[in-house]
Amino acid sequence: MDTSNSAKKTVRSMLQALTHSDRSYRSMSPSTDTEARYKKGKNGIKRLKVEERDAEPQAIRPKREEPNDEEPMFLLPPFRQTPGPISVSQSYIRRLILEHWNAEIRYCEKAKKLGQLEIGPAPGLRLTIIQASLQRLVADRWDAEVKRCEEAKRAQLLELLLAAHGITRLV
Length: 171
Known about the structure:
Order of helices and strands: HHEEHHH
Number of helices: 5
Helix content: 55-70%
Largest sheet: 2 strands, antiparallel
Number of domains: 2
Number of strands: 2
């Protein structure tokens, strides 16, 4: 292993420990501390002295704090609990309901058209009895889905109106 790379890694780890630790264990004065730990090599590169290279990481490491038995290890409630109710205007909720169900209705109408196009005849050919009955089945199915969406929209709007007047339960 290249000694200059290992020395660089050691210096980096020491500097990170010094800059990221809460406590400093030595003075940061470059004249007293840094120059005493390094010597100049043959090519002018500063390197750690060999006798200090092994001892240095233990001296810099911050002391590990023992866990205190009095402090809980986990957060106390209300951590991970459902937040309280949020007050929102009735018109905003009404608009959200309308947007949602109108999008559902548009989707049903698109699916109905696509289903009928898939069953349709090739260009220049007439529609057979089987294809016509299949198109009718597809149309009936998606019309029923549109009707269900409209009923659900009306039910949610009624719930919203009743809740605005304080009625939360029907007996």
